[in-house]
């Protein structure tokens, strides 16, 4: 079966839906990321004066991911968190060649 997309043509970006709570109560988007040509591309809003808050945000994201993956696989959230933490620690100890490539947004 062939792909509906020409392999040489740009594919449309498949954005996620806006969270229900944001639609109901408002808020501000602080982070968006997508995989393009096998690379991670990030746009972010540097809203925190204390950069340690980003650590809290990333931890919260990991816990939410663990809940979703655990629901899909009937696994334990703690095991998913442990897997994410191991990969995160490895990546933090082995950074890519170029740091700071996110696009700031206002």
Describe the structure.
There is one protein chain. The chain has three helices and three strands; from the N terminus they run H-E-E-H-H-E. It has a domain at 50-93. The chain has helices at 20-25, 52-73, 77-93; strands at residues 31-36, 39-44, 103-104. The termini are far apart. By secondary structure, it is α+β, with helices and mostly antiparallel strands. It has a three-stranded mixed beta sheet with strand order 1-2-3, with no helix packed on it. The radius of gyration is 17 Å and the shape is globular.
Number of E-type strands: 3
Termini gap: 43 Å
Give the rounded overall mean pLDDT: 86
The arrangement of helices and strands along the chain is: HEEHHE
What is the strand content? 5-15%
Defining key terms:
alpha+beta, 3-stranded mixed beta sheet, 3 helices, 3 strands, 42% helix, globular
Brief digest:
By secondary structure, this protein is of the alpha+beta class. The chain is built from 3 helices and 3 strands.
SSE arrangement:
Layout: H1 20-25, E1 31-36, E2 39-44, H2 52-73, H3 77-93, E3 103-104
Parallel strand pairs: 2-3
Antiparallel strand pairs: 1-2
Helix pairs in contact: 2-3
């Amino acid at each position: 079966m062939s792909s509906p997309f020409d392999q040489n043509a740009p594919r449309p970006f498949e954005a996620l839906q806006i969270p229900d709570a944001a639609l109901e109560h408002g808020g501000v988007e602080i982070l968006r990321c997508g995989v393009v040509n096998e690379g991670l591309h990030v746009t972010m809003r540097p809203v925190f004066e204390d950069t340690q808050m980003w650590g809290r945000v990333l931890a919260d994201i990991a816990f939410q991911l663990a809940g979703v993956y655990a629901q899909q696989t009937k696994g334990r959230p703690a095991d998913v968190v442990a897997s994410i933490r191991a990969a995160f620690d490895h990546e933090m100890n082995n950074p890519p060649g170029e740091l700071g490539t996110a696009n700031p947004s206002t």
